[in-house]
## 1
Amino acid sequence: MNNTKPTLFTSLSPALLHLYDVNNSVVVIIDVLRATSTIATALYNGAKCIIPVDSVSRCIEIGKQIEGITAGERDGKVAEGLVHGNSPFEYPKDFIEGKTLVLTTTNGTRLLQMALDKGAGEIITGSFPNLSAVCDHLAAIKQPVILGCAAWKDRVNMEDMLFAGAVISRIKGHFSINCDSSHLAETIYKKAEKDLFGFMKKNDASHYHRLMGFGLEKDIRYCLEIDTANVLPVYRDGKLVIKEF
Amino acid sequence: MNNTKPTLFTSLSPALLHLYDVNNSVVVIIDVLRATSTIATALYNGAKCIIPVDSVSRCIEIGKQIEGITAGERDGKVAEGLVHGNSPFEYPKDFIEGKTLVLTTTNGTRLLQMALDKGAGEIITGSFPNLSAVCDHLAAIKQPVILGCAAWKDRVNMEDMLFAGAVISRIKGHFSINCDSSHLAETIYKKAEKDLFGFMKKNDASHYHRLMGFGLEKDIRYCLEIDTANVLPVYRDGKLVIKEF
């Protein structure tokens, strides 16, 4: 009965996305440290919506037009000209509730734009804080899925592959998976799942070192925690909003 | 003292090679199933040299000019118009000794050409049958290294990542490795090393299924065996020859 199941592929880098049939697939944008963790958190805490944009100048422009909160990072730090950064801790309920966040990030928003340009049927965002929401949705919809890792400047990274593996380990029974990247991701996740932070540290993850260097251990730990902001962000008409079922 | 060590990166797909500083690096071409296993084997069994070419028509043309043995595959089978395929078992000593092999393969020769075009300082080929020769050389030369996986039509594959991990697990002490792909490859290898064939089978490696479908279990098992053809193929003046020390 395997051939009646929809396919699932993992694209480990935006530079590999063109290898997969994005058109009409559900694409999960994965940028664990920290864009998609922050997106889930801001929406969970009541943000009206999040407008992802691909450049700092456009972020500033749109922020002015709609009186939104401009936020984003380049190379892991608050981008020049923007007011807020990419940390989930910047968006507690008493600050973000009812507001619109205009967000630009190094890798995540660029991948989202690519998926959009390639005709993705649906675009959602995933990270450990909303793992269950992502898995429940993918298991239910019975459509082809591409897990799209945002990576780091197109280089494969550990945390996005770990999240892809977490999704696969939970929902693989619903899909036909002929994709070594997916099987590798699952293997890595199974090895790491008991202590994701410890695994990143022990295996010298580049992003672990980059963020630790900025004093952001708290951010890393939060972004690797499961279901702390368990909503499903979906991209509609230029905005990320919580998907209602 | 880490910063005095040369760097090592792993490129998991030819589509990612441009992210690394190929120029003046030693590039290891990795195409475990089966090109680089066959290259090591043919040279170990006494082939004079191997001329890797990127197309079947060029393979036929050069084969005629030099009276070489034309060989190659497309999609895992002997390519139309060529006499031999890509199995290491086609090149025993009593057949190949003293002869020139003109070889074209789906992924391996294309990656070699890319590394050449990008100005690699040295190009060698690696696979489990010549693991120790590759590791001994890389540990000795003290130059930047890129482990280049040939993958499958640019999609990351299990066996090439496993070989990269095997190399890294042996020689990482000689290099500065700030590369998640490398750390992930090593983790995967450590998980698999006791039974590489079993790991490929259990984790549904796409190439495992493709070659098993052609009845080539023997080839898979041979290509995952360590040091059975332990020579170092190096690319010089358009040919792969055994590097003499």
## 2
Amino acid sequence: MNVAVIGGHASSKKMYSMAQETGRLIAREGWVLICGGGPGIMEAACRGAKEAGGLTVGILPSFDGKEANDFLDVRLTTGLGYARNILVVRAADAIIAIAGEYGTLSEIAFAFNDPKPIVGIHTWKVRGLKQVNSAKEAFSYIKAVLKRRKK
Amino acid sequence: MNVAVIGGHASSKKMYSMAQETGRLIAREGWVLICGGGPGIMEAACRGAKEAGGLTVGILPSFDGKEANDFLDVRLTTGLGYARNILVVRAADAIIAIAGEYGTLSEIAFAFNDPKPIVGIHTWKVRGLKQVNSAKEAFSYIKAVLKRRKK
Amino acid sequence: MNVAVIGGHASSKKMYSMAQETGRLIAREGWVLICGGGPGIMEAACRGAKEAGGLTVGILPSFDGKEANDFLDVRLTTGLGYARNILVVRAADAIIAIAGEYGTLSEIAFAFNDPKPIVGIHTWKVRGLKQVNSAKEAFSYIKAVLKRRKK
Amino acid sequence: MNVAVIGGHASSKKMYSMAQETGRLIAREGWVLICGGGPGIMEAACRGAKEAGGLTVGILPSFDGKEANDFLDVRLTTGLGYARNILVVRAADAIIAIAGEYGTLSEIAFAFNDPKPIVGIHTWKVRGLKQVNSAKEAFSYIKAVLKRRKK
């Protein structure tokens, strides 16, 4: 299973910790962490996933990958700029959105379009988007959704 | 100048009229109308633009273009599905969002990312998005923004 | 019908004339000319199409369209760089390749992949690619193929 | 480093072995193997890489990944069809082309466009493309090129 963590380049300490814990939970479950590969929430999720021995993939906007964070096992440069956001969504079986700016909003919208299961933590209020307050709740929500799907 | 009208496949009669008038105003100004090429708001905007002798372009999700509305001068099939939304935004100098569902939300988000000038009519409430109540107001807003840019 | 003319940024005088005549023939038939929007072969085809009162569309690699030639009715910026080549192929009902470099080769290959009818004039020798020596022959070949398809 | 192996869905036994050995060499060097994720040459390269304990990434054309081979650590569905070919090239630091059909040709062309170092084994004859006769030679060529680049 691929689970994407989406969120902004910048993040508060609180949200950074939240993303890090989310990454840890994803890795412990044996899921591959997909993200946009950059700093902030993306870095935090990758850091957490690597702490738990997980596999991390960054789908990067640039041609050269200089924006890549230090916790990526796989760095995929695209040269597409923000158009790579759609690829993060399409590569994911489920998505956890943490805080975030307009890039994150575009990914939330795409998740509803495709559609892909998604849950948010302190992110954009979007009609139909389930929001929770902790990494654990987000993880449990996604786990339950993916379990139901398999049946 | 390219001005995109974005909005849903389905639309109320009121929003259809609004989009049609928006298309007319765009065409009268000599702007090219860009849209996703489908039914609903997209069709209405194209219909209005053609009434005013304008040029209409649809950037379509499918390979075969069967979803194309009847008022397109240029039908561009992409085979990208909803990923074509980013192309609508990138091809536009400015964007008018009318009502709409998640696809429209993804385009609004991309407009802030790129960034491109955008105004909404009864569409998603998104932080930073100027909303107005009529085609005329939307048109005037975009016209003023594009004028300022040129200087 | 959309017919794409593909070819390089640079071109000999002879190939420029060939592309210009191809553009004229496309426009006279009432087909929309699709191209990559740039200089060289693309410019020549657009110039020819405009001489014959046709409609021209350029799908441009950049965000700002500064590479656009002067004979485009519709300028679609993509910000995708050479990845826009696939969009030229996908938007076309048929393709005429004239001379060209590696970008043109990628489009020829994509035409066989999709697949789309294609003919070449003094372009890359590719297995299965029909090559002719004049704009008129290329035009006639494409016209016959499109006619057969409709039936 | 990411090294892509590109080639067709179908392959002869000889070419399958060649791709498998190429995958092994890539993995032993500690490089990540990037490919289109499907059967044939792609499967062979992934199989080889996994035999040598490497990391394998497939950038898949479909939405659901049903064409994925059994030797992928990371399965990235794109829903872009053959347009995903450009992503394989963009994600790679260097490319090894083995046999292959038109899809492979499009990737070779893109490699020259971007440009990315590339070498071929019994693949399309393309102006400027270095061709060799064995996995070992291809690997050595790419290794030398990447070494020179770093300096």
